[in-house]
Amino acid sequence: MGTLYLVGTPIGNLADITYRAVKILKEVDLIACEDTRVSKKLCAHYEISTPLKSYHEHNKAQQTEYLIEQLREGISIALVSDAGLPLISDPGYELVVAAREHQIKVETVPGPNAGLTALMASGLPSFTYTFLGFLPRKEKQKQEILEKRMYEDSTLIIYESPHRVKDTLKTIQKVDKNRKVSLGRELTKKFEQITTSNVDDLLNQLQEGLIPTKGEFVLLIEGAVAVEDTSWFEEMTIVEHVNYYIDQDMKTKAAIKQVAEIRHMKTGEVYDVYHNV
């Protein structure tokens, strides 16, 4: 049987492609792509003469069956999207599932990803992030998802079209207008722009044309910061607070240190108050 290659392609700058990706695209028998017009430009740039076959959201049902038949007959196929990684908010999931069901070998050829590219330069926390892809178009459904997800301790990564980016920002504004948000556009291209600010400021910049509504957007939302519950000790004096831990068999020195940490004080200050220095 043939091999199905999942090949990452540039998200803007045509130079952002691996040697291996070009090699695979030249060696396979067929390239399945979202839009043949887009992929032709990439192929022409790297002198790739492999035949192209359209594979997109509207024909994936019939084309999946066709491509699986080709793979079973020994034809090797590379799956690419218009930009970035196949399957990541792009077609290909059904094809990969079918290939695995038929024990067809699936190989990945990594490449750029718009969401992570924007995250790297956004200045927002990158330790934990959640990829949401494209949000629903309907306002009610969009708000429901954001109300749920924006209260997680994770930077959210969203893809958005230039025609809907303002509306999505207004929805974010309804949920939490103080949250830091980053807009990335024209990534890896000459006029790349990644702007991080509050929602009000970003909407003003869009309105004034400082952030042009051209090209696909990556929208990043800062994760929620956990609010520390201090209600249980707010009524206690510092002495009472230290004694609370001592009563739980904690040494005096350790109790003083614990109180200082929780109250965001210096250990010496708590020590002086406790010992009435």
UniProtKB/TrEMBL annotation:
<dbReference type="InterPro" id="IPR035996">
    <property type="entry name" value="4pyrrol_Methylase_sf"/>
</dbReference>
<dbReference type="InterPro" id="IPR014777">
    <property type="entry name" value="4pyrrole_Mease_sub1"/>
</dbReference>
<keyword id="KW-0963">Cytoplasm</keyword>
<keyword id="KW-0489">Methyltransferase</keyword>
<protein>
    <recommendedName>
        <fullName>Ribosomal RNA small subunit methyltransferase I</fullName>
        <ecNumber>2.1.1.198</ecNumber>
    </recommendedName>
</protein>
<comment type="function">
    <text>Catalyzes the 2'-O-methylation of the ribose of cytidine 1402 (C1402) in 16S rRNA.</text>
</comment>
<keyword id="KW-0949">S-adenosyl-L-methionine</keyword>
<feature type="domain" description="Tetrapyrrole methylase">
    <location>
        <begin position="3"/>
        <end position="202"/>
    </location>
</feature>
<dbReference type="InterPro" id="IPR018063">
    <property type="entry name" value="SAM_MeTrfase_RsmI_CS"/>
</dbReference>
<keyword id="KW-0808">Transferase</keyword>
<dbReference type="Pfam" id="PF00590">
    <property type="entry name" value="TP_methylase"/>
</dbReference>
<comment type="similarity">
    <text>Belongs to the methyltransferase superfamily. RsmI family.</text>
</comment>
<dbReference type="InterPro" id="IPR008189">
    <property type="entry name" value="rRNA_ssu_MeTfrase_I"/>
</dbReference>
<keyword id="KW-0698">rRNA processing</keyword>
<dbReference type="InterPro" id="IPR000878">
    <property type="entry name" value="4pyrrol_Mease"/>
</dbReference>
<dbReference type="InterPro" id="IPR014776">
    <property type="entry name" value="4pyrrole_Mease_sub2"/>
</dbReference>
